[in-house]
Amino acid sequence: MNLKKIEYVLPEEIEKRSFEIISEELAQKHIIIPKEEEHIVKRVIHTSADFDYAKTLCFSKGAVGILEELIENGADIVTDTNMALAGINKKALAEFGGQARCFMADEDVLLSARNRRTTRAAASMEKAAKIGKPVIFAIGNAPTALIKLYEMAKEGVWKPAFVIGVPVGFVNVEAAKELIQGTQIPYIVNRGRKGGSGIAAAICNAVLYQMREKKRR
After folding, report:
1. How far is CA 153 from the centre of its chain?
2. Active-site pick, 46, 127, 191, 212
3. Model confidence pLDDT, tens digit, residues 185-199
4. What distance in Å separates the CA atoms of residue 92 and residue 67, rounded to the nearest whole number?
5. For residues 102 and 85, is the Cβ–Cβ distance under 8 A?
6. Non-local CB neighbours of 52 within 8 Å, separated by 6+ positions
7. Which residues contact 153 (CB under 8 A, 6 or more apart)?
8. Is the per-residue pLDDT at 2 higher than 70?
9. Which CATH architecture describes the domain 55-216?
10. Tens digit of pLDDT for each residue in 11-44?
11. How many Cα atoms occupy the beta-carbon half-sphere of 21 within 13 Å?
12. 46 counts as catalytic
């Protein structure tokens, strides 16, 4: 058995070293990521240790710039799980006037979903549409959330400002992601079955950290 050599790294240097390793391995794989998307893709890989994301994360035209502008102007982020909500750096978002929210556990959402025989995820998207300000959606679990956002936009009921569509799973996951990619809604979507709440939060944080760094220069 070949044992891996232990690399001694100071606690405060671990993340930096991790990103160095990611950069080294991307270079070894001859994978070149557009500069404006690089910090997002690398943070997703850092979160998942999965280099497939370098090939499957899809960005609509000008997506990163649009997302930054929305955050700069105080847009809120709505997630489809409390896990994603917990993972988003709410302090960094608040610096720009935004708030992270999740309505999945709200009593009115539960009642609406039960009475209309729909999912809580779909009902929570409808509630988010009533916030009264631009909303960025970070969807890491429920394809029905993406489907509801697509339906509202298609019917002209309401249009999300931005969709991060990275639900994980097997039922309707790929189809739901493709629906969003077929709209005029700006998006970051991961093709295929992979994703998750941690990935949704990582994308949000990658943008927030980049913006915070620019702000402090």
Report:
1. 19
2. 46
3. 999 999 999 999 999
4. 15
5. yes
6. 192, 194
7. 159, 160, 183, 184, 185
8. no
9. 3-Layer(aba) Sandwich (3.40)
10. 778 999 999 999 999 999 999 999 999 999 999 9
11. 13
12. yes
